[in-house]
Amino acid sequence: VPGAGLLGRPEANALFLRLPRPAVAALRERFFFYEWEPGVVRLMTSFDSRAEDQDSLAAALREILTS
């Protein structure tokens, strides 16, 4: 998603994204996640993560980062 920077190559079930601070706040209104450090969020997946949830998160990121 343009505007979201992946920090490193994922090697496990954790993804770290660098996001603009306003985007972090807007995304937090819709999803639960940890802010690892200011402007960096940690997203966790599991074997039972649903594709619909991942698609929903990606769509929200696109919407937030392009508004």
Structural commentary:
The protein is an alpha+beta fold and 67 residues long. The chain has two helices and four strands. A four-stranded antiparallel beta sheet has the order 1-2-4-3, with no helix packed on it. The radius of gyration is 11 Å and the shape is globular. The protein starts with a strand and ends with a helix. The model has no long low-confidence stretch (mean pLDDT 92).
Can you give me a brief rundown of this structure?
This protein is of the alpha+beta class. The protein is built from two helices and four strands; from the N terminus they run ββαββα.
Helix proportion range: 25-40%
Shape, principal axes of CA atoms: globular
- Give the radius of gyration: 11 Å
For the biggest sheet, the summary is: 4 strands, antiparallel
Order of helices and strands: EEHEEH
Low-confidence stretches: none
Compute the separation of the termini in Å: 13 Å
Look at the helices and sheets and give the structural class: alpha+beta
Strand order of the largest sheet: 1-2-4-3
| Discrete helix count | 2
Query: What is the mean pLDDT?
Result: 92
**DSSP summary, beta strand count:** 4
List the helices and strands and how they pair.
Elements: E1 5-6, E2 14-18, H1 21-28, E3 34-37, E4 40-44, H2 51-66
Antiparallel strand pairs: 1-2, 2-4, 3-4
